[in-house]
Amino acid sequence: MSEIESRLAELGLRLPEPMQLPPGVTLPFPWVRVHGGRVFVSGHGPLLADGSLAGPFGKVGDQVTPEQAYQAARLTALAVLASLRRELGDLDRITAWLRVFGMVNTAPGFTGTPMVINGFSDLILELWGESAGSHARSAVGQAELPFSIPVEIEAEVAIDG
Asked: Does the pLDDT value for residue 1 go beyond 90?
């Protein structure tokens, strides 16, 4: 078991199965694209252990509380890590988290997007530490997100050869 997967186990966390797309939905792109020493991760949402979308659904600041959205961002981190593990074979190959772009499905007037996306960043920092886990980041509000998920996050990481 890799060092990162051991840390996940110590925290009582499990990586989910691949996302179960809703009926009739096809996505013509990979979840993860490796190019040289860089890895680009397509936007992910929160998943349950079986790969189904995790609720609650809706707009943060209306149907979804900021605390629930923080947890959704944390579940999104696990979904991203699961995709990375499937593509890379070992999460320990990640040498640095470079960039995270967090999108929050916001109700009008909700401005707490940075605190929501902290659910993702906090877990990455906990697993990789400050040196490798620290990343550039944006946290923006959106009028809508696919399937009414509260958060969607994409990332870029560096890997060893």
From this structure: no
